[in-house]
């Protein structure tokens, strides 16, 4: 089923955005969490103040690769306000110098033998205030012995490159892992016989999630009970707690992880960082609460980066534009430690969906992942586990094909879509797309932007020497990890719990395992419960981000909250409704079969006068008097939802840019985004997610990149050097949608949190490259800064790494 | 949160008091105006002055835009925002509004000052190029009284000015001439970013010819003040696209930018030319009353 019309009846206008509705269920409504945020009353980690709390600061390496010869901490220890100075050697005595990463590699908490990236953690100071802690760092004297760093990913495997991970036994090269997917021979055969093949190197540079709030924590070990309470910037509080238990030996019930309000995550707050471990150790050792908050530079230079893929893209097609095969070799830069956050069996995340939205005959990818002397990471930065890279590759290479065939890129895509009747569709790399209907989304985007008129305008402009480009991207994501038979992180299955309790007066509290970082869970989840039970969202408290008070689950990233926990919320509400149904039969003195559910109340069929509300039932469930045979009192339930499959949201994006021929500045003039995330819970929140992601995409396409000099020094250590787009760089977003529900999800919803970040960079890049067509340009890599665009116009395009 | 190293704080009650403090506290003392250059450097611990002398209370003495027939005097503590908003200034010297629209962001502009910008002397700082194009002079005050230096003499190199220990900048003076106008063009990677390169031009017309013209460049090399060959090339010439192109080429030839994350040296050199051409074209159009208001 595809519904292209708005499923809410009214359409927002400039005068009334319809957001302030009060639906009992799905629809536009203002976010329940916003009143505290817009008043500046959010409670973030750094707002946690405890009596006697101390402050921790981390000394970082100035060099990218060096042996630690000696550390003299005596001057720092003599500082009157310093309580402790801890080095890697100190941690090693406790067996705590190394910790596991989310990819089963290990990472140094504090360097012991050598430093492996610039700004790696070397020592920490705990002091009475954060100024003194920071001052004392300058009193620590570290002697380093320089080792030539491995900076160029293309040379990481050269025999003359220094071996970075000599901590790993028997390690004699800088290989991190090799991975492949698809059918090599079948793909070769198709390429050998194809009319047209196109090859292009496509680089997705290293970028940073750069959330507004940096990472940090407050660790408080109770000296009597030994219980650790950790307020921390984490997108996955339960997973973190279990990992802390496994690593530190603290029993799991003696660890409580609280994720208070989080000022943006984007994957940056999925990993466990050395700073968290240092704070825990410090509180254990000193017996006082210890706060560690990164500064902006530390966040940019040391925490999980994203992307950093050099992709050789190849596409094979018939001369009339039927795509037959896609092949790629990827060189992946994982930095000094493999900190990728992805399900364990998927070292390249879900990159396997690089076949995109097209029905093709064969596909193959092989990947070499390597270590370099750069910060570790490879986080799911709003990328649905590397789908960003995959979508960028396929959408860029399809445009290269259109260029070679001299075919309209919209027409080429329309010609190759997976057709609606082919769903569920198994791709050539083994991904089972749950549902999709691509052409209506594509047509809608083309209608909204006025595609034919724009092409006519472009032709006129080109005749006058003006540069205008139109870029298309059509993406399919795989989100909502995931089925526990295939997916786990460090052995923890990716199913989510959910608990719902209806109070006697019919108000409710729902407890989630996932954690909002701005996505609006407190609203969306109340709406899901409201839709199922007819209780108003304002009457439903949403509790999340506290391991002592919520059920187990793997957290919020990879657009998994609605696909996994959203399903759990709907199912737990249905469980309650079933019980309420039985209780209502006692109250109405009718058989269950004769009672029907009309949102919010149970009615005797054919006699609507005889009815009880869900609130009446709640009071009865907790009240006096008999309940139907075999029914316990109370009205609460819990579930653990294990998804059958991922969900596959998709979208059609079209971008229009103008390029100044004299200065090569790119102006994004228009952007239409038509998204299909299945059933929409709150269209306003969806639009918000899309707006944010599109802005992010413009940032990556035009300005963002973490780069290094030849000594491995990070060149983007402040927001003056790592540019994030502002309202000035983006147009008024034009959004639309189609609705193709997920067949296996209880409410048909898919994820939306990352769609726009995934889908928009290729649209912007394709538009810029299209604008430069008069220069004979088929490809140019991000970031398309004025300088890089100008160099491309001079015929001097160089990859960014 | 980034935190600076320890420092002592003094609040000046008058310009004389500030100068007295500067002399008493010695070379480890720094004036703080808007703080938008100094504080980031302190937080990054690239600067660690022992004393900070706050001059923000001195608006009566240092915060003004005074326009007379033949001169504009601007106090050192005048904020970017005032330079942006003053209609009188925009009418006399439109280059200021052109530049201020693309300097930093509203938060920085609300506090950052003309004096701080010039004294910071960052090679990518826009107002030096503006003041250079306008042939401005700087008034520097010390225990021995005031002295006046041209922009050319004011800038000693990147982050270095003629303001000596114990002195401060109090005022910028800009000559006003009839039949004149000015314009500024900047390329940045993003709103609020420092210039990849920028150029400002000021021209005085004498009938159909340019009697006098100057160009100020920013971010394309150190010490790019008072490029004489440009003024020579413009003097007495009728404005034309060929003239602009020739002068643009002189600007490019005098540039010596570095390749960095903002752009390649070749691109910045190209911009020196391109933006010089655009600024001259605009300044002449304004001076001759033929400006259409078009952007480029
Ligand atoms: C995010 C951001 C973006 C920016 N973008 C731009 C831009 O695009 N273009 C641009 O040109 N600038 C830009 N700037 C710089 C900004 O214009 C300057 O930081 C600021 O205006 C300098 O003035 P201030 O009053 O803040 O100086 P302060 O930081 O207070 O002082 C700077 C220096 O000047 C000295 N000083 C100040 N006043 C005097 C005086 N009267 N006499 C002697 N010495 C003095 C101080 O001791 C210090 O050394 C940006 C700054 C930021 C933070």
Key traits:
heterodimer, A: 801 residues, alpha+beta, seven-stranded mixed beta sheet, 32 strands, disordered N terminus, B: 296 residues, five-stranded antiparallel beta sheet, 13 strands, 25% strand, binds flavin-adenine dinucleotide
Structure description:
The complex is a heterodimer of chains A (801) and B (296). With 801 residues, chain A is an alpha+beta fold. Chain A contains 18 helices and 32 strands. In chain A, the strands form 9 sheets. A 7-stranded mixed β-sheet of chain A has the order 3-7-1-14-11-12-13. In chain A, strands 9-17-16-15-10 form a 5-stranded mixed β-sheet, with helices on both faces. In chain A, strand 26 and strand 27 form a beta hairpin. In chain A, helix 13 packs parallel to helix 14 (561-588), helix 14 (561-588) packs across helix 15 (614-622) and helix 16 (683-702) packs across helix 17. Chain A is globular and about 80 Å long. Mean pLDDT of chain A is 96; it is low at 1-8. Chain B contains 13 helices and 13 strands. In chain B, a hairpin with a 3-residue loop joins strand 4 (65-67) and strand 5 (71-75). The A-B interface holds A 46, 130-131, 134-135, 138, 293, 295-297, 660, 662-665, 702-703, 705, 707, 715-716, 718, 720-721, 723, 725-726, 728-729, 785-787, 790-791, 794, 796 and B 1-3, 5-6, 40, 44-45, 105, 187, 189-194, 196, 261-264, 266-268, 270-271, 274-275, 278, 296. The complex binds flavin-adenine dinucleotide. The site of flavin-adenine dinucleotide has 30 residues of chain B, from strand 2, helix 2, helix 8, helix 9 and strand 10.
Helix content of chain A: 25-40%
- Strands of chain B, count: 13
Radius of gyration of chain A: 27 Å
Please mark out the parts of chain B with pLDDT under 50 across 5 or more consecutive residues, or reply none: none
Q: How large a portion of the residues of chain B is in β-strands, by DSSP E?
A: 15-25%
Biggest sheet of chain B, in brief? Answer: 5 strands, antiparallel
Termini separation of chain A = 45 Å
From the spread of the alpha carbons, the general shape of chain B counts as globular
| Radius of gyration of chain B using CA atoms only | 19 Å
Output the structural class of chain B.
Answer: alpha+beta
Helices and strands of chain B, in order, run as: EHEHEHEEHHHHHHEEHEEEEEEHHH
Structural class of chain A: alpha+beta
